[in-house]
């Protein structure tokens, strides 16, 4: 069973180990010193930022991280997409990683995404869509999104997380289900 809770400061050593894993570092390209992890994840963990950093759990055991944000809370994020794709009012985004290398390639990414998409519609009644830009070279990530029901709606040019990559990204989207 997949569940989650807000990332807390005592989780930072685990998150740091995950960020150091080659399969994570390739796409997240994040500083991993204790100070950098505290600097970058501390404000959300303390509720000082509107984004959510969620520790993902499988049967109660941590396996990954999922970040959930509203585009309205980070206008610069939407500005980079402006003119390349429609960003509907109320749109949200997610980013995620599976930190435990023994759990990669087992369908957990798709299950995690499906679970958070369902929860987003309940947690954020004003959410209209979830848009996720993914570097086109990160096939495992965009395939997990597609398997979870998101569809590719555009190719966009964005600053890559890793300076080794070009600007080519796919934008995937899922809309709030219509209710009668």
Automatic annotation (TrEMBL):
<feature type="domain" description="N-acetyltransferase">
    <location>
        <begin position="2"/>
        <end position="177"/>
    </location>
</feature>
<dbReference type="InterPro" id="IPR016181">
    <property type="entry name" value="Acyl_CoA_acyltransferase"/>
</dbReference>
<keyword id="KW-0012">Acyltransferase</keyword>
<protein>
    <submittedName>
        <fullName>GNAT family N-acetyltransferase</fullName>
        <ecNumber>2.3.1.-</ecNumber>
    </submittedName>
</protein>
<keyword id="KW-0808">Transferase</keyword>
<keyword id="KW-0046">Antibiotic resistance</keyword>
<dbReference type="GO" id="GO:0016746">
    <property type="term" value="F:acyltransferase activity"/>
</dbReference>
<dbReference type="InterPro" id="IPR000182">
    <property type="entry name" value="GNAT_dom"/>
</dbReference>
<dbReference type="Pfam" id="PF13523">
    <property type="entry name" value="Acetyltransf_8"/>
</dbReference>
